[in-house]
Amino acid sequence: MWGNLESFSDFFVTGDPMILGAQVSIALAMIAIVFVLTVFKKWGWLWREWLTTVDHKRVGIMYIIASILMLFRGGVDALLMRLQLAMPDSEFLHAEHYNQIFTTHGVIMILFMAMPLMFGLFNIAVPLQIGARDVAYPFLNALSFWLFFFGAMLFNVSFIIGGSPDAGWLAYPPLSELAHNPGVGQNFYIWGIQISGIGSLATGINFVVTILKMRAPGMKLMKMPMFTWSVLSSCLMILFAFPILTVTMALLFLDRFLGAHFFTLDAGGNPMMYINMIWMWGHPEVYIVVVPAFGIFSEVVATFSRKKLFGYSSMVFAMISIAVMSFFTWAHHFFTMGSGADVNAFFAVSTMIIAIPTGVKIFNWLFTMFRGRIRFTTPMLWTIAFIPCFIVGGMTGVMLAVAPADFQFHNSYFLIAHFHQVLIGGVAFGYFAGLYYWWPKMFGFALNERLGKWAFWFWNIGFYVCFMPQYFLGLDGMTRRLYTYDFDMGWGPLNMISTVGGFLMGVGFLFQVWQIAHSIKFHKRDTTGDFWDGRTLEWSIPSPAPLYNFATDPQVKDVDDWWETKQKLARGEKLPPKPALEPIHMPKNSAIPFIMSIFWFGLGFGLVWDWLWMAIPSFIGVAACMIARSFTYDDDYYIPVDEIKRTEEAAAALKGATT
Amino acid sequence: MSCLSGENCFTEKRIKIDVFANWGLKPMTFCYVGFTEKNNSDKTSRTEAFGRMREMKTTMRRKLTKYAAPLLIMLMMVMLSGCSTNMMVLDPKGPVGADQRDLIYIVTILCAIIMVPVILLTAWIVWRYRDTKDNKAKYMPTWSHSALAETIWWGIPIIIIGIIGVFTVKYTYALEPSKPLDSDKKPLVIEATSLDWKWLFTYPEQDIATVNYLYIPEDRPIEFHLTSDAPMNSFWIPQLGGQIYTMSGMSMKLNLQADEPGVYYGSGANFSGEHFADMRFEVTATSDEEFNQWVDKIKAVPDALTLEGYEKLAEPASSPVQSFNSFPEGLFNKIVNKYVVDKPAHHHGE
């Protein structure tokens, strides 16, 4: 029944003191969590309020918590690598261990950190920005989260059970094929990504429908907040890109599991096909994560410059053209495959064209600040820091896009420095800005600004100290994924500096954790619901938003509708009377997403180990959950007018008590 | 600044940092002004002392703005010029690498023309329009559209990218790696096979083979034929020119040339498994004469590479440098065709 297991150490990873330490601390943490939940009698609360919730605000919070945990894991991976590379001829990590670490670092940071943090912010902000009561498919939304969560867990568990994947974050075959990678690590990779990928695709569908169908009356497409626009273009990219990933992973699975030959070296397999397919997903993927960050910057820059966003329609056009163009650039990841000058010239130029709308967006942000009044709050600091960082990252991106020059940059630390610059400077900075910006809306209090500024400076200075030397290392011939290098290469000093920078960013992260803990304990309650003096609809309701979000449907007239409303009030104009309260139609909680995702986990785990006795019942469980859901008719309820009235009055009283 | 004992006083303190001495870098000395306090009870002297300290700080700040900024720029220039002589990619020793370096410089300058002003503009805007009470700068909270302005900043990137695009396309065709180099001399063919985790180089004309090192004649085009008998790798000699993947079942061409004698670093640039970090090799470029002497020397080594020997060599493991006085005829084509099912091998870029 245990198939390929011959001993205990085939299952649990043993023999490495660091991993043993991690295993022990994970076990202790789990015992501690169970203990706390039992002592404080919180199991019921956890189940009712969180595990079975379909409320987009709670789903968003769970996404964000999970992504911060993943940021920690991915960050520890990064620091381990930097420690290893700090000195030449270092023996801190052996080759195999280093290969696993850079693989998991990449997968976790993109798929299990950036994506869920992004989905978390979608969930928090989009329904509130468009004046909706929830997303279009709340059940599916919860299911997406749990699929992501259990997919991520399946991937993460590999470093203590069975061994981590070690073929790089995109698992190029034939290295990732059975012949070269017989362990289960690569199976964990496939199924972790596959399961969470279903969730990502479902979220994409969910938000496209939400944005297209559930906007408040009066909110034409061209009156949507810019973040909502960015989510729409990101989700449209998801719809086209993620199916490619699913198919690619499925084919790789067939190769490994059933002995097919799609990407093998022998029997007519073609590994280059995989490289093409994975980048057809992989390139749009980086735009999927960066475009919402553009949306966040647009919101933040307008709010904290106290000025309307410059060039609204230019911004929309730029974003949509980035989304479209992102599907025509994938081959720039392998100019060195030797496809010939025609192919390389096409993909070089198509890649550069993306720099045009991106440049326009930068100008529009700058001219939003121009003749505004800039407040240096933490969200704004991250936004301001993003601009020069992304300009330099964009410039090195254009340099990489020059195909013949790329022959010299490819696979070198120049490339590493470039994509970290756009992914940290663009995506991470953007999501941090978004997290700080919407935090008061999520929890009803803001994060401590002073600690936030410490975190900001550590991150920023650390970033440049870490990654600027890497450009020069790349120009000096240092290739990526080297676990060690000779003293004679002369790469030592720059690597040491880079490592110091990495740890400065680590300190920045610790400041953020401290900031969150400190703010939870010592915060001041925001009673206004409009902590930053915002411009869009989410700031027109109390913080945190009531279960039903909006007591009555908002009537939208302008782009920054809430800002315009405040202007009217300040001028002493009367607002139209609010319509009478009516009972609000809401979805009921459901345990099915959680349970079904556990079955998915079982299915994935069974297939990882080739244990059909586990996979088949799990598959039946998945199917049973689907059938059970199909026959659930009692899935909605109405919030009575009385209760809405009570909630609204309580919020008004809270507001009145302070003003 | 002198300092009498028993007084409150400022001294210039120096910290010497020589962490990098091991790597042959000069120690750095950081300077700062420290305040030595002897007598806490003497309030007048304290206030005085702090007054003087403030004064010193102001002068220091002035000095800083006066000297530090140009110094910084100079430091950057020194660093950059230092880079251009030391960094492999920017210190090419062959025509292909030189063209690629020129292209890198052209693109960098074209990008910098737009990037540097925009970064400065950012700094200026952020400072000029900060939210302070007495900020007299214009405030136009509803100004959000200007057809002229937006036309300009759609236009600028279009023009710059247009120019870069033209350069790129021109160079993409000029530097197509499979294209023979301009030279009166007949190119030397070297076949490179990436294995787990070593490089096998075969010289078909000379009928010799080496592992993990190369000898090439200077000033003569080298036509590398690349393939792999293991997961994909990438063949890169930064000082001679850019890399091309080595892929199983395919034979790729890469034309390079060394213009002067020297020893150049080469590596497998694409991750190919556990010990891929060991896939480094030295390329020694010599005169024709010395190259021929070297060939004779290798011809005289006792070991020949046999088919069985090759099978053994191909097994996953690192390898030291090795030399063989001969190798099985057509070994390279055999390796390429090994992965081809019922059809002739792909010969890309020919």
TrEMBL record, chain A:
This is Cbb3-type cytochrome c oxidase subunit I. Belongs to the heme-copper respiratory oxidase family. Residues 39-557 form the Cytochrome oxidase subunit I profile domain. InterPro entries: Cyt_c_oxase-like_su1_dom, Cyt_c_oxase-like_su1_sf, Cyt_C_Oxase_1. It comes from the Bacteria. It comes from Paenibacillus terricola. Keywords: Copper, Electron transport, Heme, Iron, Membrane, Metal-binding, Respiratory chain, Transmembrane, Transmembrane helix, Transport. The keyword Transit peptide does not apply. Gene3D superfamilies: Cytochrome c oxidase-like, subunit I domain. Pfam families: COX1 (PF00115). The chain crosses the membrane at residues 20-40, 61-81, 101-126, 138-161, 188-209, 229-254, 274-297, 309-331, 343-367, 379-403, 415-439, 451-473, 493-514, 591-609.
